[in-house]
Design brief:
This protein is mainly beta and about 575 residues long. It is built from no helices and 49 strands. The strands form 3 sheets. It has a 20-stranded parallel beta barrel. A 15-stranded parallel sheet has the order 4-6-8-11-14-17-20-23-26-29-32-35-37-39-41, with no helix packed on it. A hairpin with a 4-residue loop joins strand 2 and strand 3.
Length: about 575
């Protein structure tokens, strides 16, 4: 028969049993210390200090619905073959304090009795209401049945070294999760950290500090509604990682100089070629493939600080609504998008090093106002896709963006605005892809940009001079192109990661009517006089005729065409031969 022990406030309990729960015996050692050989039930509020071991039993909390129970763990090991090792069936809140210098272990079995009940527990450490974990000791949890640690209401972690292995999710807080400190290590078959209550105002996660090491079969961190990260260190691997699939090269990141590496295979309908047949197809509904995103929010994702090392099979950072990055350091490898928002993506500051991805920044609307952004993309580096409710556009007002792309450097299904910042793009010069692509207008009113690769011409609404230079022969990857004024001051300089046949340049220092020298690897190629806001010439200085509707520079696909191509991107009859012979204009 299971012993039922009612403990008084501030009691001290020592668990030293190894027998089955139904044969537990009570040995009173002193008034303040009790040695048990079976399960423990706490049915009153108070503070309890626990130590010792139960090999097949449970710590059960069954107090009042408004009671607070505090457990101070000083070296506890509990294994239960039939249910949770620590189960708070009823209490207003439970506090677990991990005593410094102690190791505490909780482990459940692979199946539970009464597991079909509506409120049946599903974790090695399961609390029906709120759970707070603090202290500086360690807690090891093995969730062999489903979850590791699960609070149905709020889960708060303030400290401790917490290591969880789970057959389902590592940490769950149904209503919310708040982490302000501690070192958290998770290995989970499904999600690492999850808050999944769909009620309005619930299902949110706030991470303000701590160290996280997460290896998850599916999502690393998932909030049903809002996910806010203000600090902490995050190492996350999902779905086995990005593998070797993405990226436009292997030069160590976008925006660096040197030769171009061999491009990886393009995706087929199943994902990445034969090397990784199980990779998700970009943009595929989650019902068609398991979600293996690193950090994911159902409504809003905001990051104001933290250090992130991400290796994800699916998106690295994903929001079904808006995604805002205000600061932080990011090292990202992913088999899909690095930063994805269904609605608006805002990059305000931070250091974003996206070494491998399918697409770098993707949303209906993409705005970059600050930060240092390096992107190495197998498809588009920046994509304003127009999938959400926001009218698609891409706007750059600040920051430094360096992009290497096998697809478009920037692709906007609407308008493209360059108003400030620094933009360096290495993009393709052939086919349907280019350094800059847009369906609306490209309006340049500020900022510094140099793009190697084909591009559509800016709109006549632009107020800052733009130079398009068509090269007579392909320029090799690693070739340094520079624009200098008459006093030999360098206005723009860039080494492309890929070979190119077109260069686009703009800078606030460029003035209409002035003459500038174009240099390749330090040698002057030609002089160019900016005769208008938009000037297009060949690399010998002769005019480069853009054939559009009426021959103007109206912007978009109706005003100018990359590499002298007609609207459908089919090369014209006078296109240069494959050996790179000089163009005829």
């Amino acid at each position: 028969m299971k012993a039922l022990i009612t403990f008084l406030l501030a009691a001290s309990i020592a668990l030293a049993g190894c027998g089955p729960a139904n044969s537990s015996a009570l040995l009173a050692v002193s008034a303040s210390r009790i040695v048990l050989t079976g399960s423990v039930t706490i049915d009153k509020p108070g503070t309890y200090t626990l130590s010792g071991e139960i090999n097949n039993g449970q710590i059960l909390i069954n107090a009042g619905k408004d009671d607070e129970v505090v457990l101070i763990l000083e070296g506890v090991t509990v294994r239960n073959q039939d249910g949770p090792a620590l189960y708070a069936k009823k209490a207003g809140s439970v506090v677990i304090t991990l005593t410094e210098g102690t190791v505490n272990r909780l482990e459940d079995g692979i199946s539970y009795t009464n597991s079909t009940d509506e409120d049946a527990p599903s974790a090695a450490l399961f609390v029906q209401n709120d759970l707070l974990i603090n202290g500086s000791g360690s807690l090891e949890v093995a969730g062999n049945y489903k979850n590791g640690i699960h609070a149905k209401d709020a889960l708060v972690i303030e400290g401790g070294a917490i290591a969880v292995k789970a057959a389902n999710d590592g940490l769950r807080g149904g209503d919310s999760i708040l982490v302000t400190g501690g070192a958290i290590s998770i290995e989970s078959v499904n999600d690492g950290i999850k808050s999944n209550n769909t009620d309005e105002g619930k299902g949110h996660i706030t991470l303000e500090g701590g160290t996280f090491s997460i290896k998850a079969g599916q999502d690393g961190i998932q909030a049903e509604s809002v996910l806010s990260i203000g600090g902490g260190s995050f190492g996350i691997v999902t779905g086995g990682g990005a593998g070797t699939s993405g990226g436009a090269g292997t030069s160590g990141g976008a925006g660096t100089s040197g030769g171009a590496a061999e491009a990886p295979p393009r995706r087929n309908e199943r994902g990445w070629g034969a090397g990784a047949p199980d990779a998700p197809v970009p943009g595929a509904p989650e019902s068609e493939t398991e979600s293996a995103k690193a950090i994911k929010a159902g409504q809003e994702l905001t990051i104001t600080g933290g250090t992130f090392t991400i290796d994800a099979k699916d998106d690295a950072f994903h929001s079904n609504g808006t995604l805002t990055v205000e600061d932080g350091t990011f090292m990202v490898k992913t088999g899909d998008d690095a930063f994805h928002a269904d609605d608006t993506l805002l990059i305000k500051d931070g250091a974003l090093d996206i070494a491998q991805c399918f697409e770098g920044l993707e949303a209906s609307a993409v705005e970059i106002s600050g930060g240092d952004v390096n992107i190495n993309a197998d498809d588009d580096a920046i994509n304003a896709a127009g999938d959400g409710g926001t009218r698609p556009y891409a706007r750059i007002t600040g920051g430094v963006v360096s992009a290497v792309a096998r697809g478009d450097g920037i692709d906007s299904n609407g308008d493209l605005y360059l108003e400030g910042g620094v933009l360096n793009i290495s993009g393709p010069s052939q086919g349907m892809e280019g350094a800059m692509d847009f369906d609306g207008s490209f309006i340049v009113t500020g900022g510094t940009a140099i793009a190697a690769g084909s591009a559509l011409m800016p709109s006549g609404e632009s107020t800052q001079p733009v130079l398009l230079l068509a090269h007579s022969v392909p320029r090799a990857a690693g070739t340094a192109i520079a624009l200098k004024d008459s006093a030999q001051n360098t206005l723009l300089e860039y080494k492309s990661e890929v070979s190119y046949t077109t260069s686009v340049m703009t800078s606030p220092k460029m003035k209409t009517g002035e003459t500038y020298g174009v240099y390749l690897d330090g040698q002057k190629l030609t002089d160019v006089t900016l005769s208008a806001v938009i000037t297009s010439v060949t690399d010998d200085g002769s005019p480069y005729t853009i054939r559009g509707f009426g021959g103007g520079f109206g912007g978009g696909r109706g005003g100018g065409f990359r590499n002298n191509a007609p609207p459908n991107d089919v090369p014209p009859a006078d296109a240069p031969p494959a050996d790179g012979a000089k163009r005829t204009f």
